[in-house]
Amino acid sequence: MTKKLGIIQTRGLGDLVIALPIAGWYQDQGWEIYWPICTEFVESMTRAAPWVKWIPVPTDTGAFFYDVPMERLKNFKVDEIICLYQALTGHKFHDEKYFQYTKFDQYKYIKAGVPFKEKWNLANYITRDRMREAALYDHLVKNKNYVVTHLKGSDFTATYDEAMIPKGWQVINIEEQTTCIWDWLKIIEGAQSLIMVDSVFANIVDQLGIGEDRYFIQRSHIGLTPVHGCDWTWLP
């Protein structure tokens, strides 16, 4: 009988992308994956990874982080639960001996018992909708020379020196043009340069190895900034 694995990491989108290869690694071992996430993320994650049983959890004042996901996973009678939070109010995940010595993404892989190099196997675990990608591309791209920017993280809006972009190039800023984050992939892949704040799209770019001219804008201290597998130029 197939064993069921439950994962607790309800948000944010960047964390879900970082952790998706963890779920993929377990699926490759024959596990069924059950994963409660915030309702607003379900469409994006279902389109990319329909092999996961995504369980919608309404965002509330705090129980959605841990208590509700735990209850839902128990209702689905999973065989094992892995919690990927490295810190959470009311819990002592930070007491783990490796908490002070790792980045938050490394922590998740150590906690799950998955080789950290698997983080960059994201492409193996997503399904792309080329028609949706092409539709967004055709709608937005008006110049073969263009830069893609993404400047808003969950709690931060970045700026950069616009003089770094050659005159005449189009600037496409990732905004709410679509209900699915993965629809941006063709546009991102075709860009001459990528300028991104530490966020879900920077994670996608790094984990998929997209682009050659990449610029990264940090927003958190060292422990909460992900490990990069690609070469980025860091902007102040």
Task: Please summarize what this structure is.
The chain is of the alpha/beta class and about 240 residues long.
Q: What tags apply to this protein structure?
A:
236 residues, alpha/beta, five-stranded parallel β-sheet, globular
Written overview of the protein:
It is a single chain. With 236 residues, the chain is α/β, with parallel strands linked by helices. Strands 8-5-9-10-11 form a five-stranded parallel β-sheet. Strands 3-2-1-4 form a four-stranded parallel β-sheet, sandwiched between helices. The mean pLDDT is 94. It starts with a strand and ends with a strand. The protein is built from seven helices and eleven strands. It has helices at 13-28, 42-48, 67-75, 104-112, 130-140, 185-190, 200-208; strands at residues 4-8, 32-38, 53-57, 80-83, 146-150, 152-153, 156-157, 170-173, 193-197, 214-217, 233-235. 28% of the residues lie in helices and 19% in strands. Strand 1, helix 1 (13-28) and strand 2 (32-38) form a beta-alpha-beta unit. The radius of gyration is 18 Å and the shape is globular.
